[in-house]
Amino acid sequence: MGSTAVVVGGGIGGLAAAIGLRAIGWEVTVVERAEVLDDAGAGISLAANGIRALDELGVGTAVREAARYQYTGGTRVPAGRWLARMDGALLERELGTPIAGIPRAALHSALRAALPESALRVGSEAEPVSTVDPGRAGIRLADEIVDADLLVAADGVRSRWRALLFPGHPGPVYSGSTVLRAITAEPADPGTDFELTWGPGAEFGHIAFRDGRAEWHAVLDAPAGVRHADPLAAVRARFGGWHDPIPALLDATRPADVLHHDVHELRTPLPRFTSGRVALLGDAAHAMTPNIGQGACQALEDAVTLAAALSACPTVEAGLARYDAERRPRSQAVARAARQAGRLGHGLRNPVAIALRNTAFRLTPARAAVSVVLRHARWTPPRLG
Questions:
Q1: What is the CB neighbour count within 10 angstroms for residue 36?
Q2: CB 19 within 8 Å of CB 116
Q3: Residue 125 above 90 pLDDT?
Q4: Are 9 and 156 in contact (CB under 8 A)?
Q5: Which residues form the domain of 57?
Q6: Which residues have CB under 8 Å from 314's CB, separation 6+?
Q7: Sheet containing 202-208: which strands, arranged edge to edge?
Q8: DSSP 294-305
Q9: Cβ-based neighbours of 251, under 8 Å, separated by 6 or more
Q10: Does any domain span residue 156?
């Protein structure tokens, strides 16, 4: 059984994969081309499946200490009327843990702290090589060739390794939505832990943090590549007339802190997540829209499942086959659900369709609404030790 791995990509999925592999006794090197590993600038909601994966990796306690649990909030319309209330206490009773809101930088820091500094190679570009043993995996770093038993490609939605392994695959496509987001520069507690507000072709949401600040995001259905000279002013023009606390969140934001990204997804599912001694993980394997908040959670599931499969199987090849069989159906189903959720949320523009959706939401019992979250969050990680 192999015992050395190179993880390409130092994001949430890549760091989690490295922690999982080290937990089963592997020697791991994480290669990240960015000069600084911080993943700052936004927030994230972690459902029970993501929290359980972090527990299995040994970093759940640190993440809980940095997070604010989501008990209150829900979904509204721009005028402020509630479509559905969030029942975080019910979710906690059903799943054993509530949803946790945390700055991405804090999650990233907790994962990074679980790895020795010597395992991280930042500011390094990993180039593929074909000169190593075909039964192994290798990369080139500057003038050095790193030979390993396994390569984990966690290099994001535009994964170079996915394109190399599956040259006939169309790759990521624009989802039709672009998102502007920021964390407030000062405490601006919005009064609830988590909210979404749906308007025609638009969505505004917030996540409240433990320190009183909040992350907000503004989603627009728009052509790809559109950018604004003053992104915060553009958000104010579109959402400034929506209900409180949206104007207050925008007022508490520095213009320089606003990030703007087009949302891409792997609309065409991959035929497999592995090839030879290479495993695709996270967005590289199943990039999805953020509409049900499962992108990072699925990457964390990948990391734990990969390590468990390699630990349980007699060969790397058998472990990778097990990883693919366990992760591909689930993550691709979650990606489909995320896409459908977007179409029913900010993706609607027709007034009749919006009215029908809003009526259905208001008439749906709380327990039935919670079942949607439960369907994706009910996941128990395999044991690593």
A1: 10
A2: no
A3: no
A4: yes
A5: 4-70+102-170+267-344
A6: 1
A7: 82-85, 73-76, 194-199, 202-208, 214-221, 173-183, 259-265
A8: -HHHHHHHHHHH
A9: 188
A10: yes
Is 265 in contact with 283 (CB distance < 8 Å)?
no
Q: 258: left (phi > 0), else alpha (psi -120 to 50), else beta?
A: beta
pTM reported for the whole predicted model = 0.95
**Whole-number Å distance between alpha carbons of 295 and 302:** 11
Distance between CA atoms of residues 99 and 298, nearest Å:
15
In the prediction, which pLDDT does 163 show?
94
Q: Per the domain annotation, does 66 fall within a domain?
A: yes
Nearest partner of 181 among 99, 263, 111, judged by Cα: 263
Distance from C-alpha of 286 to C-alpha of 300, rounded to nearest angstrom: 12
Amino acid at 5: A
Beta bridge partners, 155, equal none
Residue 22: CATH number of its domain: 3.50.50.60
- Residue 67 one-letter amino acid: A
Which residues, in sequence order, are CB contacts of 166 under 8 Å at separation 6+? 270, 271, 275
Alpha-carbon distances of 263 from 224, 290, 296, 334, rounded to whole Å: 9, 8, 15, 16
E strand intervals along the chain: 4-8, 27-32, 43-46, 68-70, 73-76, 82-85, 99-103, 120-122, 126-128, 137-141, 144-148, 150-153, 173-183, 194-199, 202-208, 214-221, 259-265, 274-275, 278-280
Helix (H) or strand (E) holding 313: none
Phi-psi region of 272 (alpha: psi -120 to 50; beta: other; left: phi over 0): beta
Reading the block at residue 364, the tokens are 């749906």
Which of these, 15, 27, 18, 34, lies nearest to 122 by C-alpha position?
Answer: 34
Number of domains into which the chain is organized: 1
Would residue 10 count as lying in a domain? yes
Domain presence at residue 294: yes
Spatial contact of 101 and 378, defined as CB atoms under 8 Å apart: no
CA separation for the pair 321, 94 (Å, rounded): 32
Q: What is the pLDDT of residues 28-86, one digit of tens each?
A: 999 998 877 665 668 999 999 999 999 999 999 999 999 999 999 999 999 999 999 99
What residue type is 292 in one-letter code?
I
Tokens of 95: 């799943």
